[in-house]
Amino acid sequence: MAQILVNVTVGPNDPNKAALAFFVARAILEEGHHLVLFVAGDAVHLLTSESAASVEGLGTGKLSDHFDVINTATAEIYFSGMSAKARGISPDDIVLRGAAPGTPNKLVQLIAQCDKLISY
Prior knowledge:
CATH class: Alpha Beta
Helix content: 40-55%
Low-confidence stretches: none
Strand order of the largest sheet: 6-5-2-1-7
CATH architecture: 3-Layer(aba) Sandwich
């Protein structure tokens, strides 16, 4: 089992790439690997209930469907606290269960410890 980090920075303005990022995160879990997710920049908007319900990629599904799977699995989930604060998103607005605010230093630590990195 590999430990795979998915780093997401693309926001709802690119729904295809945004949905693809979480589609792949879901596939990591379904394949039995350990998912580590770090969401930063405009991507923090994706973690709100509004985006989860409205963002859908062509051929990659709705965010809400991917979030449902991710929320039932064991995964490490972080979002940039600085990105969220700058965009007026509070920790209470985040719909992924167990998501914790992270810093750039945390992202560097995760990159160093994971076996693979995928970035969207």
